[in-house]
Amino acid sequence: MINSVLDWVEDRTGAVSGVKHFLYEDIPGSSGWHQVLGSVAMFCFMVQAVTGILLALNYAPTPPDAHASLRFILTELTSGRLIRGLHHWGASMMIVVVGMHLLQVFLWGSYKKPREATWMLGVVLLLLTLGFGLTGYLLPWDNRAYWGTVVTTQITAKAPIAGPYILRLMGSEDGNIGVQTFARFYGAHVLLLPPLMALLVGLHVFLVRKHGVAPAPVETLPAKKFFPGQVFKDTVAIFVMFSILFALATLVRVPLGKIADPTDTSYIPRPEWYFLFLFQLLKFFEGPLEIVGSMVLPGVAVGLLFATPFIDRGAAVKLRQRTFAIGIVALAAIGWCGLTYAAMSSTPHKDPWQSFTAEEVAAVGSFRQGQCWQCHGVTPGDSKAGPNLADIAVHEERDALVAHFQKNAGNRGLKESQMRQLATFLKKLDDESVVAISSTPVNVVSGAQLYMSKNCGVCHAINGGGGKSGPPLNGVAKRRDRVWIEGHFVDPQKFSPGSMMPPYKFDPTEMANMLAYMETLKD
Amino acid sequence: MAEELVEKRRGFLVGSITAMMGAISAALGIPALGYLMVPARERKQQNWIEAADLTKLMVNQPEQIIFQRVRRDGWKVVSEKAAAWVVKTGEQQVVAFSPVCTHLGCAVSWNAGDKSFACPCHTSSFSPDGKVIAGPAPRPLDRFDIRVEGNKIMLGEVKKSAEA
User: Fold this and answer.
1) pTM, 2 dp
2) Of A82, A232, A396, which has the smallest distance from its Cβ to B31's Cβ?
3) What distance in Å separates the CA atoms of residue A81 and residue A87, rounded to the nearest whole number?
């Protein structure tokens, strides 16, 4: 039965002999584990295609719905987190695998004549992969996406002559990012790049087949068939890669942050890790030299990569005879690692609660006082009787939430105003800020609760929330020392004559908590 | 003998390739099915909307009322117009029918002449208590959850009617 179907397919299309031709291709006897990386890279691309299509089936590709729909995917849909995790980590995985593939081909000298075109096509594929990363980074439309892309567009905008045109091409006017830029990035990410990539991968594989898999300098073993020996090795490598990817997607949560906020001046933009070296490089070139870091050096690097087969034309394939070439690659690798490390260690760490308003920090206190944690987990996978706040989005109406608090924690001394604040806070929770429920220090929470009970927010603002008649309190600890702040509470007029602030008598614990809170307020 | 070994090795390799590819396909395919087919996490949320005034209705005189309701639509919360046919059946008793024909979803309207709800698409008609009188409709009109508070008529969700 199967045979007759296969015969029919073969007779009408020739597909069977086509596949056979592909599988039973002769490859050099020396082929082996070192040559699996190309297949793994291609498989990475396929995983990205599958997970990308799945995401697109529940995604609204325009701001601000992009953020809302991704949140919907993460918090409401079965396996939504897994699929988004696979796509996110898959992107990084693909960069790593493509990088390893490039390195292997380089170290084995497989780019040499007659395989120069295969190599150059490979460099184009590397650039396309980076293009996927660049355009995909904007699509979650959270602060990280927005600010990361702002930096990218600003860099390209500084290109000589072409700058404004590139910016225009990216749908951005005077460097602002809006729906138009988003549409262009999305369009490139899902309509332009995928078919281009597929086409060029096909060509790349065609060229590999045309010239044959690169042999060892001296082949001692007889040629063998691609299937099943080498296919088995490829499959094992693919399986290992996929297992790591699956583990990352399940175990390491990719947070979806607050929705993109162009007015959020406190956000510290960082690109994805594989672009960090460029980001760091720019710190060394200031003013008119900036273009050296943003355009010249990356341009030279890409140019060198393209030209590698023509620079290194010697017949020598053995590593020991190519110390110069190897040295350059080693230097580039060290430089890349160093820059990436420097960029990572210079990224200031900011806990989510440090961006909260006083009301929000106090709400963390209400959550703890109400012992909500008895039923609700706040870290991923912490299963308790009630819904886990790290896994869901709170959609209930505020009144319904307050009623829920009254019913389940009414006897724990929370005032109605506190319950209302807690309800407001819970509705705003996202993947990043939910951490604050467990991570905000106790004395800071007590300080914020005291701050709320004394209505300090009527005159003062913290992180943008509060009144304007008094000075904002962010960075107060930088402007004044502890003695001044403490004395100022007790007798404001003594420290700042003419101040309209009334004196506050705190007991020593209260004062300590209040000072602890004041000291954490960053600029 | 050597021939046999080669054949065995080949069988092992092909078997392993199939198994590994199968495992990967399952690891992608099963979550994908859940992602596409399992409905979004359910939120039990009954919103009662004040839709009409009891005193303004006449007994057994169906009245179409239009009201604004808030509905969650995937990742969006939409505020939209909705309609219901409200029939006062007693002093404090009211029923509210969904205006959607149970056949293929056209909007039914009240025909005062022969005292029935008529569907313009395939001529289904329903009695004032929602039962099918004629036409291809498979079951009575669906009803809204309803609550009467004083003179206020509050509407909840539409409940699917049972097959006749």
Assistant:
1) 0.89
2) A82
3) 10
Do B35 and A79 touch, CB atoms closer than 8 A? yes
Would you kindly state where each structural domain of chain A is located, as residue ranges?
A: 34-258, 366-431, 441-523
**Relative orientation angle of helices A116-136 and A193-211, to the nearest 10 degrees:** 160
Of B17, B20, B41, the CB nearest to A76: B41
Rounded to whole angstroms, what are the CA distances from B157 to A6, A333, B81, B110, B153? 55, 63, 14, 22, 13
Distance CA A319, CA A327 (A): 11
Q: How far is B81 from chain A (nearest CA, A)?
A: 20
State the complex-level ipTM.
Answer: 0.86
**DSSP 8-state class, residue A234:** H
Exposed, middle or buried, A380 (CB in 10 Å: 0-12/13-18/19+)? middle
Question: Is pLDDT of B67 > 70?
Answer: yes
Return the closest-CA partner of residue A452 out of A323, A378, A360, A522: A360
CB contact under 8 A, B14 and A228: yes
CATH number of the domain at A34-258, please?
1.20.810.10
CB contact under 8 A, A77 and B35: yes
Q: Across the interface, do B74 and A395 touch by the CB < 8 Å criterion?
A: no
What's the CA angle centered on A509, arms A505 and A512, to 5 degrees?
Answer: 85
CA distances from B78 to A60, A393, A478, B69, B71 (A): 15, 17, 46, 8, 5
Would you tell me how many other CB atoms lie within 10 Å of the CB of residue B105?
9
Question: Would you kindly state where each structural domain of chain B is located, as residue ranges?
Answer: 1-38, 49-159
Residues in chain A: 523
The architecture (CATH level 2) of B49-159 comes to 3-layer Sandwich (2.102)
For chain A, the C-alpha Rg in angstroms (whole number) is 29
- CATH level 3 topology of A441-523: Cytochrome Bc1 Complex; Chain D, domain 2 (1.10.760)
Same CATH topology for A34-258 and A441-523: the answer is no
Q: Looking at beta carbons, which residues of chain B come within 8 Å of A60?
A: 75
Cβ–Cβ pairs < 8 A, chains A and B: 74
Cross-chain Cβ contact A242/B27 below 8 Å:
yes
To the nearest whole Å, the CA of B9 is away from the closest chain A CA by 9
Whether the CB-CB separation of A88 and A140 falls below 8 Å is answered with no
Q: What chain A residue is nearest to B16 in terms of C-alpha separation?
A: A232
Diameter over CA atoms, chain A: 100
To probe the interface with B, which of A78, A240, A242, A398 has the most B CB atoms within 10 Å?
A: A78
The residue type of A451 is Y
Give A154-211 pLDDT, tens digit per residue: 888 888 888 889 899 999 877 789 999 999 999 999 999 999 999 999 999 999 999 9
How close B16 comes to chain A (CA, Å)? 7
Burial A503-520 (b: 16+ CB within 10 A, else e): ebebeeebbebbbbbbeb
Going by C-alpha positions, the residue among B123, B87, B128 that lies closest to residue B104 is B123
CA distance A304 to A317: 19
Dump pLDDT digits (tens) for B82-123.
Answer: 899 999 888 888 999 999 999 999 999 999 888 899 999 999
Question: Chain B contacts of A58, Cβ < 8 Å?
Answer: 35, 74
